[in-house]
Specification:
The protein is mainly beta. It has a single domain, classed as Immunoglobulins (Immunoglobulin-like, Sandwich). It is 8% helix and 39% strand. The strands form three sheets. A seven-stranded mixed sheet has the order 5-6-15-14-10-11-13, with helices on one face. Strand 5 and strand 6 form a beta hairpin.
């Protein structure tokens, strides 16, 4: 089985399909451990992943701390909690990067080809419309596995790609600010050859002020988990 950390580096482009109106909300089949997923790195947690299974295809999305930054909490139901501020712990420091990353995983264990969209959000305002997200689109061949971990501060997410084999539409809201607080939403959308959506995995990252970060994130995560259990 072929594995690559750059799902979009296939030398093929595909036009993005029509998006739904309204905000992206956490969506998954199960939320928990995605065995075998490394998200293209080492030490990246794989025990809090929004996992959607569609036939032979597995989609996974998560958020995690970047290097030695504060841990990212979660409520066990697709909401993650990170702290604002630039990443000063890389070598060299990356002041335009957030202190957290979002990570994706996709496995197509069958032979059918699909289209895959990865949607990401630069707007810290709540409820960003799906149509205002950035879109990375590609063909997903059969018997193919890909995973990676990216940061919203990475330059290629903000400008239309050229000569990369990617199909990229930048977000309507430009200029990601790692110091902003608010919420960011992400979705992996699987489509059939006609562009119709078959299923998705989606998460929401809530970014809070960096003040007592560990206590804040732990408290938010536990409160959210308690609420999710009461609702279920």
């Amino acid at each position: 089985m072929k594995r690559t950390s750059w799902i979009l580096g296939l030398g093929m482009t595909v036009a993005a399909a029509a998006l739904q109106a309204g905000p992206i909300v956490p969506t998954y089949t199960t939320f928990g451990t995605l065995s075998g997923a490394t998200f293209g790195g080492s030490g990246i947690p794989n025990d809090a992943v929004a996992i959607t299974t569609i036939g032979n295809v597995t989609l996974g999305l998560t958020a995690h701390q970047r290097y030695s930054n504060p841990a990212v909490g979660n409520n066990g139901a697709g909401d993650f909690y990170a702290v604002n501020g630039p990443d000063l712990y890389s070598s060299p420091p990356q002041p335009t990067y957030a202190r957290w990353n979002f990570a994706f995983y996709v496995e197509n264990a069958g032979s059918t080809w699909y289209t895959l969209d990865l949607l990401y959000d630069f707007d810290p305002g709540a409820g960003t419309d799906e149509g205002d997200h950035g879109i990375l689109s590609t063909l997903l061949p059969g018997h193919f596995t890909s995973e990676d971990s990216w940061n919203l501060g990475m330059g290629f997410l903000g400008t239309a790609a050229s000569g990369t084999g990617w199909s990229l539409t930048p977000p309507t809201y430009s200029g990601f600010d790692p110091n902003a607080t608010g919420e960011y939403t992400f979705a992996l959308i699987l489509r059939d050859p006609s562009g119709a959506e078959i299923g998705r995995s989606a998460i929401r990252v809530n970014v809070v002020p960096d003040a007592g970060a560990t206590v804040t994130l732990l408290g938010l995560g536990l409160a959210g988990l308690s609420l999710a259990r009461r609702r279920s």
